[in-house]
Amino acid sequence: MNKHTFFSAGAALSLIASALSFAETPPDRYTIVRCGTLLASADQPARQRQTLVIKNDKVEAILDGFDPPALTSARGAGAAITEVDLSDKYVLPGLIDCHVHLTMEFDRELRMREFTESDPFVTLRAAVYARRDLDAGFTTVRDLGTGRPDVVFALRDAIQQGMLIGPRIVAAGHAISITGGHGDGTTGTRQQLVPIQRPEDGIADGPDECRKAVRFQIKIGADVIKVTATGGVLSVAKAGLAQQEFDDELAAIVATAHSLQRKVAAHAHGSDGINAAIRAGVDSIEHGTYLDDESIRLFKRSNCFHVPTLLATATVAANAEKPGFYLPQVNEKARQVAPHALEMFRKSHEAGIKIAFGTDTGVSPHGENAREFALMVKGGMTPLEAIRAATIVASELLGLEKEVGTLEPGKAGDLIAVSQDPTRDVTELERVQVVIRSGQVVKSPG
Ligand SMILES: [Zn+2]
User: Fold this and answer.
1) Ligand 1 centroid vs 241 CA: distance in angstroms?
2) Rounded to an integer, what distance in angstroms lies between the CA atom of residue 407 and that of residue 410?
3) Phi, psi dihedral angles at 359 (to 5 degrees)
4) 106 C-alpha vs ligand 1 centroid, how far in Å?
5) Cα of 68 from ligand 1 centre, angstroms
6) pLDDT digit string (tens) for 226-265?
7) Domains in the chain, please, with CATH?
8) Residues, CB-to-ion distance under 5 Å, ligand 1
9) What b/e readout covers 398-430, taking b as 16+ CB neighbours within 10 angstroms?
10) What's the CA-to-centroid distance between 97 and ligand 1, angstroms?
11) Helix crossing, 149-160 with 207-220: angle to 10°?
């Protein structure tokens, strides 16, 4: 039973009074949401007929019933009040995708577009992609690597300052990669046409350059550090999926990031790279395709999260069947990883590893993020466990557990609504009807 459920009439009146008495400051904005069913936290049972009161951008109270007395006083006081009727809907906290790429959507022309698309164009398009993710119910996303860090930092800041509607963004800037490694986007291009990649571009060899690369990304605005610990499927390199960063490089990256209060997310497929990254102290393993018994043991001994990105694997497997969609060296890797994804997920889930929701959207189209849920359920999670991974667990990985992940007083007024119970059919989350972000209705039916 939630002790915050009670909201006294006196408190409501004083809130409204304070809103009215300072004419020079904008009046407080109330959003009153009547929820047919409310799953305020994936750790507590859903409740029927609940009224959620959002003051400005934060949850103020959750009340039993649709017309509690405190609300009557609030309505009569003439403050800025928006009432939202979701009495026939199932309401839950805004979803969190821990792995997206806002500056891209993969297609056959992606590599050529790197040479033709300007930063301003990519920025405008990233704003559209961010909005698609938000409309799909993802009120918080983590951008895990871009060739254009300034674009994502600017988008994050413009949204945060209320200039644009979009999800809350946690951004990595440039991924840290070895020369020619998974994060080196210039691999396979004519060297006369591209500048030599430096630590400032995320490309670093040896512990000293790794320290500089991490410090530079943080200097220009990174919230989190991404490292490509192993080869990757979509990089244009016939270099496999095994460990790329040496142990001393991983150690330098993690120590530098942690010393500046940033977490480290490690892209890793091969078990050698997964295990080296966890030993080095990274905070999450992204993908984790070939995790083995030693990985499980290391995960359990550490505080490391697993972000399985099943949608990315399913997407590359499907695209690998389209003739010419990927270059031959990419196609080979895409076919390799596909059969391992669900087995890897099942193993991780059954071992009780902390699994946070992430899709690698950008590999798949923006706005389809929720397709990950059905894959997680196929891999052995209950729908509620998958929802927990996309709310509570994801908020912990991002270090935002005091702000998002559940609906309770003091946390963000970020919520979504669907028509049917998603704990019965998780694909219902692919049909999000209403999105409220920081107390503002940003998507509604029609
Ligand atoms: Zn990725």
Assistant:
1) 14
2) 9
3) -120, -20
4) 11
5) 46
6) 999 999 888 777 778 899 999 999 999 999 999 999 999 9
7) 3-93+406-443 (2.30.40.10), 95-397 (3.20.20.140)
8) 360
9) bebeeebbbbbbebbbbbbbbeeebbebbebbb
10) 12
11) 30
Q: How far is the CA of 206 from the centre of ligand 1 (A)?
A: 23
- 194 CA to centre of ligand 1 in angstroms: 23
59 C-alpha to center of ligand 1: Å?
A: 32
Mean pLDDT of successive 10-residue segments in the chain (446 residues)?
A: 40 49 72 97 98 96 88 64 96 98 93 93 98 98 97 98 98 96 88 92 97 98 97 79 94 98 97 97 97 97 97 93 86 82 96 98 98 98 98 98 98 98 98 98 90
Please tell me the distance between residue 287's alpha carbon and the centre of ligand 1 in angstroms.
9
* Exposed e or buried b per residue across 105-121, where buried means at least 16 C-beta atoms within 10 angstroms of its C-beta: bbeeeeeeebeeeeeee
Cα 361 to ligand 1 centre (Å) = 8
Closest CA to 256 of 199, 200, 218, 206: 218
Pinpoint the alpha helices (H) of 55-94: 69-76
